[in-house]
Design brief:
Elements (H helix, E strand, L loop, with lengths): L9 E6 L5 E7 L3 E7 L5 E2 L7 E7 L5 E6 L5 E6 L4 E3 L8 E7 L5 E6 L6 E6 L2 E5 L7 E2 L3 E2 L5 E6 L5 E7 L2 E2 L1
Antiparallel strand pairs: 1-2, 2-3, 3-4, 5-6, 6-7, 7-8, 9-10, 10-11, 11-12, 13-15, 14-15, 15-16, 16-17
Length: 174
């Protein structure tokens, strides 16, 4: 039992190769906050001014991405490096940024969404967010993981919901 921040529920979602454990814990039994689990009581990572948060990616050096449900209903993501936080940003025209992976170079992947379809995978490299397009004939793309070489894996799907596995190399789908 890794415990909770404040007598509510908790969930461990990420374990890095160096043994760092992240996820979320309830605070005051109703609020969900990103959490770092360890030898003692879980650390409350806060909500960065939003309504709720969860750690959605982490690396071995202690960097992590906190995905925040904002007060206005949108979703944002912030990279924390132990000293400062940096907004991941948004793809132009998209309201939500949801992160799903990060490699040890600090490259971050995820999906931008408006909740109306046309979701787009993205990668953040050197602080710049770049769209990863869907396969030809598909309407959506989703990034799930990135390796040390910068290859990104995920699905691309048609309007009918048929998913096809895809890997992006150099920003191009294969």
């Amino acid at each position: 039992d890794l415990g909770t921040v404040d007598q509510g529920g908790s969930e461990a979602d990420i374990v890095t190769e160096s043994g760092l454990i992240y996820g979320w814990s309830s605070v005051q039994k109703i609020h969900i906050h990103g959490a770092k689990f360890g030898d003692q009581k879980p650390a409350d990572l806060g909500v960065n001014g939003g309504a709720a948060s969860q750690v959605s990616a982490a690396d071995n050096s202690g960097r992590y991405v906190l995905t925040v449900n904002e007060i206005d209903g949108s979703t944002s993501a912030y990279l924390y490096n132990g000293k400062s936080k940096t907004p991941i940003g948004r793809l132009p025209g998209y309201r939500n940024t949801m992160v799903s992976g990060m490699n040890y170079h600090g490259e971050i992947v995820g999906t931008a969404s408006n909740g109306t379809g046309g979701d787009r995978a993205f990668i953040v490299q050197n602080g710049r967010i770049t769209e990863l397009p869907p396969l030809a004939g598909s309407t959506d793309s989703f990034a799930n993981a990135v390796n040390a070489s910068g290859m990104v894996a995920g699905p691309s799907s048609s309007g009918a919901g048929m998913h096809r596995a895809v890997v992006w190399v150099g920003g191009k789908p294969e």
